[in-house]
Amino acid sequence: MTELATYNFAYLDEQTKRMIRRAILKAIAIPGYQVPFASREMPMPYGWGTGGVQVTAAVIGPDDRLKVIDQGADDTTNAVSIRAFFQKTANVRVTTSTTEATIIQTRHRIPETPLTAGQILVYQVPIPEPLRFLEPRETETRKMHALEEYGLMHVKLYEDIARHGHIATTYAYPVKVEGRYVMDPSPTPKFDNPKMHRSPALQLFGAGREKRIYAVPPYTEVVSLDFEDHPFEIQSFSEPCALCGARGTYLDEVILDDKGGSMFVCSDTDFCEDRQAHGHCGHLSANPAEAAE
Amino acid sequence: MYVAVKGGETAIRNAHKLLADKRRGDRSVPSIRLDQIVEQLALGVDRVMAEGSLYDLELAALAIKQARGDMIEAIFLVRAYRTTLPRFGYTLPVETAAMAIERRISATFKDLPGGQLLGPTFDYTHRLLDPELAADAAVEAPEERVEETHEPAPRVTDILGHHGMIETDGELPEGTAPGDLTREPLAFPLERDLRLQALARGDEGFLLGLAYSTQRGYARSHPFVGEIRIGEVEVELEVAELDFPLTLGRIRLTECQMVNQFKGSAKQPPQFTRGYGLVFGQSERKAMSMSLCDRALRARELGEDVTAAAQDEEFVISHSDNVQSTGFVEHLKLPHYVDFQAELDLVRRMRAEHERRDVQETAE
């Protein structure tokens, strides 16, 4: 432990945590509004979850149970690395179970198991500004948010429909929070957008490189942008998970050979394993009888 | 049968072990010592201190060793350490006019008070690879000044300033405290204090490219090197209990005063304007690039048209930090298969629609 003695609980010093907590409180008070904060250089690179790590470090306590996922999975390398970071610097309990976790830090997914009151979902955000790719200037986009001037976004979605017959945004699909701010849900697939709506959990978003924090408090309206005649739709998969047989979950395509063979499996590994443990199986399960035990 | 890849933890551990092994390299070759890096790779150490924003030779050397000579990785290591350090206070502005000068040149005046001093420069060396260096031949002791001159060496901009030919340093309004970009998030548009801070820690290569672009006509500023000086200055801190500032130590700096033409505006008569560069250690390339970029970024203040990349504050400052840039560019290595799956699905759907349209058209 001597090598860690020079670092505070959860790495950040208390002054920094206080600064981040203030930003979080402001973000909760103005749902969907991007609060600038003095993001620190973290011991992992920008773009690798420094915003999420700072938010987690500011809200985590010794009694918390932390789950970290990347692409829905607990065992992807960066999720492993971030989980190990908090084990080392905060010595907190970690879990892969969505229901057991008090804090879940995520990149690119929302767990399939519905979250409950008291849980905190921390998103890692690369580009917090939903208008960024329509207008590269921060000075402009700030003004557009202040004036609630979101016409540009609607024009973009309309142009998609005119060109392709449908909206061609599949992830980081913009949402409107509590009827006011248009917000980037981070690059989660639009499949996950409905899970944000009136979620009992607190949702916090941290963008370290871009120095922004925003939040969706529990039970807040989160509506995906759409048109009356082109309502928002989520992705659907034609086949169930090959391992647990689940339908209505987000699936990853796994390439099996070089002849076009592939299978679809749940991207949420905890959800999938839990179902298998409870006897569900898909058509490629190793041994249905064994899985049922 | 597909088995989800487990063992990310073991893979990471093994990768780190392999990295440590590669870093050490052939065990029959002696390990490089930090003092060797400090002494013999001094300009690399200077760059890590400058862009890492931490003046500590030994830590910079350690970072270079740990990063296997990857400068941006070394800068990142130093930054991540620096951010954990407590702040005791802010030092007084350093007085570069009182610098213990090791090198000082002016391209605008043939001679000037305090004289010109070439110092340890690569300028005028012929870039011929030197086999003697590889053989570790003995090196002669350098010439030394016979007597220490105490002639003051005022900044060249102060010399011109007396005649009103060049803009003065300017006065900040009473009670202005300079910003600190490491403690507050940047909010555009910036004032020059924060802009200079960002440039001082900005990537040398990025600023060099932008500076070069201003010379090639993208926001041309007719620059002259008023002066470059390199040497040590004292760093002083005001302590509440004492009525004199306390000297904490000395740091080596490179300062560049770029002098640029300015046609004048409705409010100001024609005079020379300035771009400023100040960098830890010895780095003329960085200090000069910084001063050219600083001058270009003053376009708004001086009422010039903003037409080129180098004048665009949001563009330059948002992308000058190499720790941020490298992090975000390299994060593309992280898995993105959830997003990619979403895009794959979309492209498949669009291709199916495209085919259907084709079939329809041929049928009609």
Automatic annotation (TrEMBL), chain A:
Gene Ontology terms describing biological process? organic phosphonate catabolic process
Pfam families xrefs: PhnJ
What chemistry does it catalyse, as a reaction equation? alpha-D-ribose 1-methylphosphonate 5-phosphate + AH2 + S-adenosyl-L-methionine = alpha-D-ribose 1,2-cyclic phosphate 5-phosphate + methane + 5'-deoxyadenosine + L-methionine + A + H(+)
EC assignment: the record states 4.7.1.1
| InterPro entries documented for this protein | PhnJ
Query: Which GO MF term does the entry hold, naming one?
Result: 4 iron, 4 sulfur cluster binding
> Which keywords has UniProt assigned to this entry?
4Fe-4S, Iron, Iron-sulfur, Lyase, Metal-binding, S-adenosyl-L-methionine
Protein's UniProt keywords contain S-adenosyl-L-methionine: yes
Q: What class of enzyme is it?
A: lyase
The UniProt record lists the keyword Plastid? no
Q: Which family does it belong to?
A: Belongs to the PhnJ family.
Its function, per the record, reads: Catalyzes the breakage of the C-P bond in alpha-D-ribose 1-methylphosphonate 5-phosphate (PRPn) forming alpha-D-ribose.
Q: What is this protein called?
A: Alpha-D-ribose 1-methylphosphonate 5-phosphate C-P lyase
Q: Which organism is it from?
A: Phyllobacterium pellucidum
UniProtKB/TrEMBL annotation, chain B:
Per UniProt, the keywords (alphabetical) are: Lyase
Can you name one GO molecular function term for this protein? lyase activity
Alphabetical GO biological process terms: organic phosphonate metabolic process
Q: Which Pfam families match?
A: PhnI
Name of the molecule in the record: Carbon-phosphorus lyase complex subunit PhnI
